[in-house]
Sequence to fold (71 residues):
Amino acid sequence: GRVYFNGQVLAIGNNKIYISRDQGITWKNDSRYTLPDGLGTSNVTATADEEGYLWLVGKDTGEVWRGLIIE
Fold:
């Protein structure tokens, strides 16, 4: 799935986070966006909240991770 976060569209797949600056036409991997090392699944969904956090939820494990980009 896709999620709008930090002014960009993100997609999660192949154990990576991809970004699109052109609303989904082209995608690339960016080193600022990485999945947590301890994430025990590649079956992940994501959402962003109004406070600027990105939430990752393992669909099959129930794990919940929260991230924030600090620039």
The chain is about 0% helix and 45% strand. The longest strand covers residues 8-13.
